[in-house]
Write a structure and sequence with these properties.
single chain, seven-stranded antiparallel sheet
Amino acid sequence: MRKITLQLIVLFALVFNAGILGQSLPQSTGRNGIVATAHPLASAAAIEMLKSGGNAVDAAVAAAFTIGVVEPDGSGLGGGGGMVIYLKKEHKSYFINYYGRSSERASEASFKSGRDNYSGKAIEVPGTVAGLLMAHEKFGSLPLSKIMEPAVRHAEDGFPIDQTLAKLILDNIDNIMSDSVTASVFLENGFPRMEGELLLQSDLGKVLRTIAEKGRNGFYEGQLAESFVEGIRDRGGVLTEKDFSSYQAEITSPLNGTYRSYDILTSNIPQSGISLIQGLNMLENFDLQASGHYSESAKTLHIMAEVEKLVYADRYQFLGDPDFVSVPVAGLTSKDYALERYNSINQSKLDPPRYRDADYGNPGAFDKAFRKEPALVMEPAEGHTTHLSVIDKDGNAVALTQTLGLFFGSGQTVSGVLFNNAMTNFSYNVENVNYMQNGKRCRTSITPTIILKNGNPFLILGSPGASRITTTLIELVVNVIDFGMDVNEANLAPRFYCQKFEDYLHVESGINPEVCSELEKMGHQVKVYNGIDLFFGGAQMIFVDPITGEYSGSADKRRGGIAIGY
């Protein structure tokens, strides 16, 4: 067994002594910088960059590369994501979309959801490396070798498997065993590696070193890219060397919205910031404070659930890759359209009596550029992702969400890289806006978000959780802005989940049982989860006090992590 560094011993001793490995430590505060991620080592990597003179982008990129090593079930070099960046001094914001694209030959794979989820056929061109390097090149200040050193160290020297990762290895052992190389990393003699064991990923370390030395071209071109293509083809996939060499992350502006005088900067299409804005626009028409918190008021929870249901109906109907379809962005983010949708809600009962019968709206009436109305189909509700939030001493902020798709992605490891299964996010109904086409980006739920107050960062947040991401973020924003909770209270508050393609209203047990009884009388079929459950996401949040300027961070104990400030 390799020797664990002193830094690792000290950090994990802190977590073990707190008795909450795999859960969050108490919220952290600071004035020079703060980071919240899903793993202590990723948070430590970000703080290391800030203390070395780096900015929020340096810290976020270092944490993102590191989290792909120490939380390999959720993200990594073989996945994709998106990030919102806010530069306070310039009052400028940017959105980098580095989600994957389908192959130029994707249609030849004859991918079938369910049958092929854990095979080479499920793999899209990965975007993580391109996106993180683009962010560093345009906005970072430290050398790339410095940024990547923590990720390289933890891959080559290893790190102790925590409770969360150990459980996920056990729960997903069949998918891990779909590929012998993946199995050799996470299993030993056919048995899942256990909590406390040292996880070594030497081949991944070599890839990280190559990226540190050669940059983007070291991953997307040359010998490494050739090995990826060959290995994926051996596993039934169709990715080509051109798919890799031609991949480019996209830098644009975030999607902008407002909520009760706060400015929202969130992921642009085909990611799902548009759904967050629509949901908050609808809730602006309801006096949440007067009605009471949703955990104690059936009326509040009913209205919010109905809002979420209608938002999902519209999302599935209209959101797709803007390079291939017309998306009514202006309509879906219109305050007038939101009022129309809100007014359609029956405030006393579930109407229609099944969530699945909810109609989509007509945002095209509020958007002259919209050209057509596509058909409707459900997309998978399961999935695993990771989010991290960072702010530096100058008030520059980053919200970053990245993913492999489902837990452990495709389960296929080639040349040290565990690849995504993002092809599962497409529709395979030719009439659907999210229909799979060659070279297309799939719709995705990830929604990294920064909220401003008077031009200053106020809340930096995001979450994993597949289709639950939108509901989680709506509830977090409401908890902070409408109900005045601090960042940790907001993160610990019970959650619920409702959407069009569900038979149940899912709630955590912290919701008052009397509220659940009232909801059932209103027609809802309530499914209660004991305690808090990772089903409802794993938010990483930072709050900036508008008066004192102090930073507060919170890592969601549903999925683990830690917020560190100084």
